[in-house]
From TrEMBL:
Annotated signal peptide: none
Coiled-coil features, chain-numbered ranges: none
InterPro entries tied to this protein: SspB, SspB-like_sf
Designated name of the protein: Stringent starvation protein B
Residue span of region Disordered: 127-171
One Pfam assignment: SspB
Amino acid composition bias (Acidic residues), ranges on this chain: 127-137
Amino acid sequence: MSEKVTTFQYDRMVEAALRGVLRDALRVVEAQGGLPGEHHFYITFETTRPGVVLPDRLRAQHPQDMTIVLQNQFWDLKVFDDALEVTLSFNRKRERLRVPFAAVTAFADPHASFGLQFQTEMGADADLDEIDDDGGPDWESLMGEGETNDDRSRAAASGEAPDPADPEGANVIALDAFRKKQ
């Protein structure tokens, strides 16, 4: 009788659980019809991932990744087990986006000083020594207070690029801290 060997992929289990935090937070927003108080969400995702749906002009402006903000001006948020759909305004035109949770690379709620970083499935297969752990985007420099997705589009069109850095005072959870280094 041969003995069955089981390997636990804890890093993937933790990744799935943390994506569940994002999904649960969005479900609260969906159920309440908006964000409570001063909360606002930054969601960064890979635009090249399968299942990401966004207009071609936005994909051209954001060929690799994109950060959206859910704050005051978003409509018809729908949260599914595997993705979110939302309508946002870009250059005063409402556009519908679909973002699979597997495409999300970062999530933050600056009001709560909370953030998560994710490895996408493509990134999870990379050699861990090659992963650049720069602490993630500086959420406040990406989107200043009061800015909208329209402002983000104008900044992208003008060539302004945010400088990635640690979010000041935020509790960012990067899964690299839990991964076994070889």
